[in-house]
Every structure is written in structure tokens, then in C-alpha cells.
Amino acid sequence: MHATGTTGMGTRPSLIVNHRAGRGRQQPAVVAAAQARGMAIRHLTPTVDAAAAARGAVRDGADVLAAAGGDGTVSAVAAVAVETSVPLVVVPCGTRNHFAGDCGADIADPTRMLTALDTGEEHRVDVGSVNGRLFVNNVSLGFYAASIQDPQYRHGRLRVARRHLRRAVLGTGEAVTLTTPKPSRVVLPSQALAVLVSNNAYFPTIAPEGALRPRLTGGALWVYVLGVPAGTGMVGTRIARRVLRLLSGRAQVAAWAFNRQTITVEAPRIPAAIDGEATQLGGTLTFASHPGALRVLRPPSVDTPTTRVRLQW
């Protein structure tokens, strides 16, 4: 990201709070800090979701939106911020906080992000969309999307994801054919288990615990096709070892970049995940990158850390 300038505190900043995100551990401190600043606060309820709360805040005059929650909450508020050209402050209160980390938020101290309202730097970052719906992280099709829609997922994420992955590898689950343009030099895995379309590139791995996008300003979306070699669908210890390797990110991956692309799903609806939120997609999916569409505020002191590498040869 590059800074486009500094900004003082908006005259009507509003905080959108999801108390269910991240088991609600960080939210009380964030709400207290926001109250001390005199911010308007809107709490999500079973009848008021993040997008509705954000739109209500803008209608009431909010000129800065702060999203306190996980990736799903931030994504929904970000969509409203893009629609209304209102800056966004990302306050990480979720379980993984992928977008918050990638856009430079202080994961260890969410309340610190509110200082961006004083002398914060504004950064323009990219977003993606699928059939007009905005996403800040990715859209997933395949075993992961199916697993998060399993009623048991919240009670045992790894166990449920492993079960759905095992079904995919063994070929005992469901299957659908996808059609999309692909560079001729890219070789697909023999057996595809998931398709991920991401807002900018993930490095060095797309494994859940290793997700990292060094840039959110590349102006491109990336397709990742995750799979395993032919003949993997065998029972016994071999399949167990392969499943574990896949979960740790050492499977076959094909990847390429694009600005706008379609994926045709030969089914009316299949499980999908948009920024980790369960949904259904099908038919023709039109993906597009929107460079610099989102205005993000962050404290000027939140910098990229330095590191030392000992190189041997």
C-alpha cells in the first residue's frame, strides 16, 4: 500500500461492532475506547447485519466507518465504504483477521487502530468482486466452502474440514465441472479439490495459517486451483498422510493472475465462501479487480517490521 495523505478525525466517525466475532474477547475494550472518543457505535443484532449498520451510519452522517469484527464483518462494511467513498478503519476482533493483517492493522492491539482517526494515513487498496458482490480476501469453491456450511464446523473446524477434504480426495463427496480461461503454460492438478480466487496474490502458501499478501495494490485477482496427483484416492495410511500434507499447504497448486475473468459452474448452485462467509454460487461467475477502490485509514506508526536473514551457501 502507499499513503495518499493524512487525515484528521472525521466529524462523525461510526464504529460497527460484531460482538460474536473472535468470541467477543476484544470488543469491550474497543467499545470503551470508541466511547471515550465520542464515536457513534452500532452493534450488530440478529436483525441488523454489518452492511445494514454501515449504511445506516452513513445515512446519519458518518464520514468514517470503523469495523470491529472478523473478516466477514470487515468485508461487509468495506463494501459500503467503497459504495459511499467513506474511509474505513479496520479494527481486528476476529479469529484470523486475514485482511486486517494484510492491510497493516495492529492485530495485537485493536484499540490502537482507532488512533487513525486523529492523524491517520489514508491508503488506497484493491478489492475484488464476483457478480457485483465485493470481497477483500477471496472467494472459495470446493471442500473448504462445503466444510464451513457444515452445522458442526463452528464446534470443530479442523475436524470438519478434514472430513470434507477426505471425501473430496476419495471421490465420495459431490462433484461439479468448472470452465474458465487459463494460460496455456499453467498445468492443473490431476484431481482438483478447491478453487480460490483471491484479491491480489498469496505468498508463500495459501494454507490457512500461512496466508499472506505482501501487496494489496497489485491491481489483479489470482486463481488458485488446489489439488492432488492422480491416484491419490486410496484408502489406508497413504490417504491420511496425503490429507495431512494438503492441510499443511503442500499440495499441487496451479495459479495465474487476471483483471477480469469468468468461471462457469455447470450447476445452478454450489457451496461457496466469500471472505469466509458461507453462501451459494452457480452459473456464470464474473470476477473483476477494482484497483484502489477502498480507502483504508491506519495509524502512521503501524509500519512494516524489519527482519534479519542469515544467508548461507
Topology:
Blueprint: E1 3-7, E2 13-17, H1 27-36, E3 40-43, H2 50-59, E4 64-69, H3 71-84, E5 88-92, H4 98-102, H5 116-119, E6 120-130, E7 133-135, E8 138-142, H6 143-148, H7 157-170, E9 178-179, E10 191-199, E11 221-228, H8 237-247, E12 252-258, E13 260-274, E14 277-298
Parallel strand pairs: 2-3, 2-4, 4-5, 5-14
Antiparallel strand pairs: 1-6, 6-7, 6-14, 8-10, 8-13, 9-13, 10-11, 11-12, 13-14
If you had to describe this structure to a student in words, what would you say it looks like?
This protein is 24% helix and 34% strand. It has 313 residues and is of the alpha+beta class. It has two domains: 131 residues, Rossmann fold (3-Layer(aba) Sandwich), CATH 3.40.50; 153 residues, Sandwich (Tumour Suppressor Smad4), CATH 2.60.200. Strands 1, 2, 3, 4, 5, 6, 7, 8, 9, 10, 11, 12, 13 and 14 form a 14-stranded mixed β-sheet that branches. Helix 2 packs parallel to helix 3 and helix 7 packs across helix 8. The longest helix is centred in the N-terminal third of the chain and has 14 residues. The model has no long low-confidence stretch (mean pLDDT 85).
